[in-house]
Amino acid sequence: MDARAAHANHHETDQGAVAALRRVVAVRQKLESGEAIPPDLVGWLVQALGKIETGTDAAEALGLALEPGSESPHRILARERRNAWLVAALEATEGRTRWERAEAVAVAARDFMARRWPRWRTRAEPPGNATAQQRALYQAARAAEVAGLELPGNAKQFSRLAAAARGHEPHVFVSMPGRFTGT
To answer: Which pTM was predicted?
Structure first.
């Protein structure tokens, strides 16, 4: 197998683990809410539990096993949640252009992390008087902290997030999670 094929298989395993973690989260949410678990999730869970029962490692049976050196699925999902909340913070920020909003939210995020986050970190929710931008930054900071991530520190990073959320990310930034590749 050549290096490109090995890289492709490694990426598929990583993406399979992310999909498996999404299924785990969906099952937990359904169980917590008392809602019925959809048949496709029931089938997946029954199959995985059967494998575990016959001696297969739980992570492997659930599809969560990773190649050595792979980024964990929980970190990938936490980054997705963080980024979604950062886009919400951008949308809650005033500005005529995406760049103006990105500059403003970058300043707000640095201020939030320095001043508010240390006081709000232990709260289950942000205070009732928090602005929409502050609520979004709070949720982004929580998602980031769980996975050992940070919030972006400059307008360029926020602008890229906004572009990616709209599907306008330049090709040069399309890559494997955590890596940027040039064309």
So the answer is: 0.67
